[in-house]
Task: inverse folding
């Protein structure tokens, strides 16, 4: 497989009235083309801002760490995303190589411009197509994502569509420019389960057809299990575990991932009581020192976890977790 | 009516008139239509459905917080009996102390200008349930301890708390007047998974300890499966199936319930794509299809489904289903995979 994306030492802080807060702390990962990567975490884990950093889409008070390197491997050679300055330069990634779909499609479409006009506009900007060709492609895409009577829908406004239809239109628009990477930020969270199942199916089909990579951000491990090839788990701005979807879900190694899975109400097991992770997610202003999970961790080693930031240790070949317990166990053997 | 039933609704409908256009016809949103259900004392009763199914409106109607268009709701806890459609102002005041609501969003439900102590004490003061400030404080402390809030917490303002803690404050406020019936409307939907489990365990604990009857309104079937002992499924304002939880999840009878269960993403990565997928979306409550409301999406719909609306029928003990073809679908294996 060909490498599509390298993220090295991504650190992202925000300047706020209460001081500089760390949203992402030294995160590195790599993605191959045509893969679905699940990015899982709870609120405040930094999963959305990590994905937005791939096209420098964070607000102006964002400060990237000096070591941060994000490289996109496109057909015409690698692009250093951090070096892009003007919005003109940024168009290579924004809407060009990378498209994004958001959680709330109602808020992502302009309310007073028809869906068709919005689709045509972005195609004209990013691909240099003429209006007639752009219109044809847009209607074709709407049809492809399962919107019936696409040429009528093309003229409609976002409020005239139902929730599921809006998300489909959003996907059609994101894919019409033929991006290399699609970032999907909680794309099914606002949808009912029966509609969610439809949208997940659609996205799986599209990966097969278009062969792009997807970064799928969600808090729902079930959705990840159904869609992703690989999974990365984030907690308070750090990557705590990554590996293939089977490894991470079946044989999770980090105490946080274990806790998340134990807290999940499962239909195939109604007898086991739900086990919450003790305590609350700390505010980003009060990040614990050492391992960020140490104050909620049921198997904390004490001093070492407070004093030392754990690095990734291999669990198996492709599966890694950042936890001191794994080194200690390996050392004990 | 048996003595064990706390709330009983018969043919309950809630309609909201919409103002039509200047010349257009007046439209009516039939949010809840002809719902009959009994909630036994001490039950953790789940009400599930997708958005627009009328589950929230039904919950509110049982609290007399939504206008009841037709039908009756009877509340009887052994001490007091209220007919909600004929209730007097005095009776309503009494009913308000016996029934409470916990909201979905703990960020919107708490006043940012009141301390936690004042938030929890407010129902007692408004309803005049305590004689002195000392008594109020004692009740507040007692209920706060049950909800795992300490004295230090009571002096602070809501902004200092996380989502899970705020939801515990909302729960304490709902329970301070010592209600018998509590409606929890999507009370864990806004919380993260690791916190959600904690709040669910707390609700369950308190329910058992205080002998409460809960109506747990939720769109999340896995959550309902874990906490409720009886579940009712709603679709477009109607009850389509009601059964004890284990029975419902083991042997769903209504095609909608089946589809809903199979649409939940499985945590097993090798269990992909087996789900029975439903086409289309829930119709608008202003423009409902004739016959069975599910016929537009049902893979088993036949002529009778498009003509006559099915009634709830008895299937087994405590299990009722509103489908013309449930028996057929259960007996004929060839239809189950259609």
Result:
């Amino acid at each position: 497989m060909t490498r599509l994306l390298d993220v090295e030492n991504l650190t992202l802080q925000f300047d706020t009235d209460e001081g500089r807060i760390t949203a992402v702390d030294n995160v590195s990962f790599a993605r191959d083309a045509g893969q679905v990567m699940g990015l899982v975490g709870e609120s405040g884990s930094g999963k959305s801002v990590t994905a937005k950093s791939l096209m420098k889409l964070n607000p102006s008070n964002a400060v990237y760490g000096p070591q941060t390197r994000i490289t996109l491997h496109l057909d015409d050679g690698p692009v250093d995303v951090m070096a892009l300055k003007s919005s003109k330069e940024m168009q290579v990634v924004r809407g060009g190589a990378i498209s994004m779909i958001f959680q709330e499609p109602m808020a992502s479409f302009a309310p007073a411009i028809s869906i068709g006009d919005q689709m045509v506009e972005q195609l004209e900007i990013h691909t240099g197509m003429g209006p007639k060709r752009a219109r044809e492609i847009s209607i074709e895409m709407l049809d492809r994502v399962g919107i019936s009577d696409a040429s009528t829908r093309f003229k409609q406004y976002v409020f005239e569509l139902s929730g599921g239809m809006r998300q489909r239109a959003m996907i059609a628009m994101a894919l019409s420019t033929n991006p290399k990477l699609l970032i999907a930020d909680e794309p099914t969270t606002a949808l009912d389960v029966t509609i969610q199942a439809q949208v997940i199916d659609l996205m799986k089909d599209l990966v097969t057809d278009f062969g792009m990579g997807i970064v799928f951000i969600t808090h729902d491990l079930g959705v990840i299990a159904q869609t992703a090839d690989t999974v990365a788990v984030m907690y308070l701005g750090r990557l705590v575990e990554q590996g293939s979807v089977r490894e991470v879900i079946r044989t999770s190694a980090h105490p946080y991932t274990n806790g998340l899975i134990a807290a999940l109400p499962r239909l195939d097991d109604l007898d086991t009581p739900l086990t919450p992770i003790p305590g609350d997610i700390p505010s980003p202003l009060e990040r614990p020192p050492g391992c960020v999970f140490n104050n909620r961790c049921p198997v904390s080693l004490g001093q070492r976890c407070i004093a030392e930031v754990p690095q990734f240790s291999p669990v198996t070949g492709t599966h890694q977790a950042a936890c001191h317990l794994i080194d200690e166990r390996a050392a004990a053997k | 009516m048996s003595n064990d039933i706390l709330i009983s609704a018969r043919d309950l409908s809630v309609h909201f008139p919409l103002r039509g256009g200047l010349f257009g016809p007046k439209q009516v949103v039939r949010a809840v239509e002809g719902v009959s259900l009994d909630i036994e004392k001490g039950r953790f009763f789940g009400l599930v459905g997708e958005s627009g199914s009328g589950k929230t409106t039904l919950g509110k109607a049982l609290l007399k917080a939504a206008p009841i268009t037709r039908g009756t709701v009877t509340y009887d806890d052994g001490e007091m009996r209220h007919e909600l459609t004929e209730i007097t102002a005095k009776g309503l005041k009494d009913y308000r102390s016996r029934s409470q609501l916990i909201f979905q969003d703990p960020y919107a439900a708490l006043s940012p200008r009141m301390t936690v102590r004042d938030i929890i004490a407010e129902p007692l003061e408004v309803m005049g349930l305590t004689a002195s400030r000392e008594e109020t404080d004692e009740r507040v402390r007692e209920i706060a301890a049950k909800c795992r809030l300490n004295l230090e917490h009571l002096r602070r303002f809501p902004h200092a708390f996380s989502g899970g803690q705020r939801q515990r404050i909302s729960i304490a406020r709902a329970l301070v007047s010592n209600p018998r019936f509590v409606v929890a409307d999507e009370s864990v939907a806004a919380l993260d998974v690791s916190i959600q489990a904690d709040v669910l365990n707390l609700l369950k604990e308190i329910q058992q300890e205080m002998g409460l009857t809960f109506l747990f309104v939720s769109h999340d079937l896995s959550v309902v499966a874990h906490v409720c002992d009886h579940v009712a499924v709603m679709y477009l304002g109607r009850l389509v199936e009601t059964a004890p939880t284990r029975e419902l999840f083991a042997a769903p009878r209504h095609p909608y319930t089946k589809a809903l269960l199979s649409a939940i993403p499985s945590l097993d990565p090798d269990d992909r794509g087996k789900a029975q997928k439903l086409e289309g979306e829930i119709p608008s409550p202003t423009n409902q299809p004739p016959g069975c409301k599910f016929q537009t999406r049902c893979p088993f719909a036949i002529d009778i489904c498009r003509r006559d609306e099915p009634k709830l029928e008895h299937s087994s003990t405590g299990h009722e289903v509103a489908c013309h073809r449930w028996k057929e679908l259960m007996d004929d294996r060839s239809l189950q995979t259609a």
Observations:
- The mean pLDDT of chain A is 90.
- The first strand of chain A starts at residue 3 and ends at 16.
- The two ends of chain A are 35 Å apart (CA to CA).
